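Researcher: Next entry in the queue.
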Amino acid sequence: MPFIDMAAIDAAIAPLSDTVGFPPDQAKFVLCMLVAVLLGFVHLSLPNNPTLKHVFSLFWGVSFSVFCFGDQTIHAFVISAVTYVIALLFRNSHCHLIGFVWCLGYLSCNHIYRILYDYGGWTLDITGPLMVLTIKLSSFAFNVRDGARLEQCTPEQRLFALERVPTVLEFFSFCFYFGGFLAGPAFECRDYLRFTDRTLHKHPLPSTVWPALRALIISFVCLGIFLGGGKHSQIDRLREDEFLVMEPFWWRVGYMMLVTSLQRPRYYFGWVLAESNLIAAGLGYAGKDARGNDLWDRCNNIDIVGMESSQNFKSVTGNWNKATAAWLRRYVYTRLTPEGRKPTLFQTAVTYGVSAFWHGFYSAYYLMFFSAALCTELAKATRRHLRPHVMEADGKTGKPGLKLAYDIFSFVVTHIAMNYMCAVFLMLNLHDSLRLWGSFYWGVHVVTIIGLVYFNTIGGSPKKRPLAATPAATSQKMD
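Model: Structure for this entry, 479 residues:
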């Protein structure tokens, strides 16, 4: 018998749910996210007392979890508490590896359970916060280990290394911080501790009101776009025989592009809304740029303009779910790359594999991420071989006409490939995914494989830019 009566909570939220037209789970989620923005301003105005702030953050984070997920909140405590014990016991040996395996393993058990009781469903449960916690806690384990071996760390690793294990209160406040618990974005423990004791920012913190409101407005614009188009776009039509067999090829391509593009604003809404409460509290402040303008992107999880204008897969992965991309880069991709060596397809494939594992066990995730790994490698090879032909000798100035044509071509190809991959991410199961790709004659896969074979065999070495006459130009590296 559950300790927390979720039926009573859902009944209490029913009037709001009916008014906004959201299911109770989504209504509770959005309500908590909006309250978190107000709490962010309150957190910022609290006295400079780290203990008070940790208690405040922990209380509200746990309250949000209980309100949204009831008894499932215990899972967040379990994955956090065990990671903390691992950090204490194995700080001087393998806490990073044990912690990483533990977090992914515990998350995986929850993914499997969710598949068994809600296959293909979109109901919000504790799995979402556990995905965020897996990033934060596995990073924490690496940071603790790096703090015990500072002399062997890279400059970036030293930036986040923890030379002491935080207290129990500090640790659980970090885990349950109300601003990022429900939907992220994840952030590093050292940044959070410095944010709480007000040593994070080099510059005086400016007013957070307008930046937070601006993010809030953007999030609701994204929600409006989704409700106006994405919510009514027929993803299920991509499974129908009539669509897969009877419709003309170019119609199928266009419809697939439209449907998948209209789903992205749903994610933009959640991420930018979450970012707004981190900005309100000041955690999102990133200092000033070269011109003295304030930057608010420390906890930015999505660059909407960068995402929608991407010209290669590196840009796609760099602008989408940025906190997860940073986690994969810092704690998988670069850690697997031998010092002094360049990453290869192996590091790329393993990184995408961990990303798929983190997302869950729907077969479509693995189809998408491993295919995306191949597309990423082709994009890098294509850039190395083709870009020098459209650039002047300085490597910065594009040749008239050629650079524009290259950019347009890169944009179109990237977005076709991206939506081709994302379509199966939304469909989830193996059978429907293979049928959909088959209806497109496996075009992206065929081009990708042919391109990789060509560039790695008969394609030869990439063209080298002719050196400019000046000594300064000769010292420049290839872009």
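Model: Residues 465-479 have pLDDT under 50 and may be disordered.
Researcher: Noted, moving on.
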